[in-house]
Amino acid sequence: xxERSPTAPAVSPVSPGYRRYALSVLLLIYILNFLDRQIVxxxxxxxxxxxxxxxxxxxxxxxxxxxxxxxVLGIPIARVAETGNRPRIIAAAAGAWSLFTIACGxxxxxxxxxxxxxxxxxxxxxxTPPAHSLISDYTPREKRASALAFYxxxxxxxxxxxxxxxxxxxxxxGWRMAFLVAGAPGVIMxxxxxxxxxxxxxxxxxxxxxxxxxRPSLKQAFAEIRSKRTFWLIAFAAAIKAFIGYGAxxxxxxxxxxxxxxxxxxxxxxxxLGLTGFLGITLGIxxxxxxxxxxxxxxxxxxRFGAKDLRAYVSIPxxxxxxxxxxxxxxxxxxxxxxxxxxxxxxxxxNTLWYGPGYAAVQGLVRPETRATATAVLLFLINLIxxxxxxxxxxxxxxxxxxPMGFGAAEGVRWSLMLFIxxxxxxxxxxxxxxxxxxxxxxx
Length: 444
Prior knowledge:
Blueprint: H1 16-51, H2 55-81, H3 86-104, H4 110-124, H5 128-138, H6 144-152, H7 154-173, H8 175-196, H9 201-204, H10 208-214, H11 218-226, H12 229-259, H13 261-270, H14 275-306, H15 312-333, H16 337-344, H17 346-351, H18 355-365, H19 371-388, H20 390-402, H21 408-421, H22 424-433, H23 438-441
Helix pairs in contact: 1-2, 1-3, 1-4, 1-5, 1-6, 1-7, 1-8, 1-12, 2-4, 2-19, 2-20, 3-4, 3-5, 3-8, 5-19, 6-14, 6-18, 7-8, 7-14, 12-18, 12-19, 12-20, 12-21, 12-22, 13-14, 14-15, 15-16, 15-18, 15-21, 15-22, 18-19, 20-21
């Protein structure tokens, strides 16, 4: 293993109490990040009916429109974050994406909605790369996977709240109001981050000039990242998982609307809810709570077993990814909505186990001065392939099976999701291949 970078902190630059506070603030911001990103999933069918959209347009609006600028801007923002004030970058980003989420509620047609989603993507590009870098400076290495997994809880929790909140508000007040309510809290958290989060670099370097001198150039940073075989195996495995995950997230609600509407309507009536509200709450609980369990477990297991063998950082995702595939397939084929929901509760546990170990491995594979850039490159691949192409791909294949192949809308979305889920086997294989190089390439 290579020597620790000379500018890496030997001890955490903040107290344990402040670290817990800062991690909580960053978690809340990331929850809102994912809420604003994913609320469109439960609103997709009402938007489709109101604006008369095709499935490929839903996929474009849900995925590529958001991901295009999100991926492109992530790297330059990360470069600023390597020496800039990371809390203020995160705060400005949160304010921007929240205002664009609110603007989605005023969109009158497909083009306007797509442009608003582009704006959400531009804002959210400034969140995770500086947040990962900040958390890695706040946290000792032996606790890094758990800290990053705690931050990653924003993914399932944000998805849970987005599904539940979006569905209930859409039933009561329409899909436009759901966007307005979702965007407002982010403005408040932007102010909290700006005024209370600390930039610890003053304790990690003599002055800003020294920090800038230590920072590798963009060419050097890319050269460092490019030399890491483990990084690329993790990155492409994670991108494939995102390709599946974002595609499924965008079309699970339409799948239930089209295949199990009658049964779900009866269940919703028993609870005094509308169909959209009931499905939003149910999917939020089934996918969000189980995803939170998996995310937390992944960080815990990685810190525990990674201390003994660094290969655990990739072994855990490899095995869990493969185990999740059959549950999805049987859920899609189930005749009962209740059975399908029960089966769909297992894949989120297994498929989110990679967050803590995967992100921690990426932070450890490069020097501290390259961490934000490494995260941005990772997210570039995850979001361009996963978020950009996943929903669009599922939607396009669904349209093909539904129309030209003559299977209808219900079977189209079912079999499109089925085909995409099988790519999980490839992601599992890539994680497993990384076992052979991770121990030699870890540096910090």
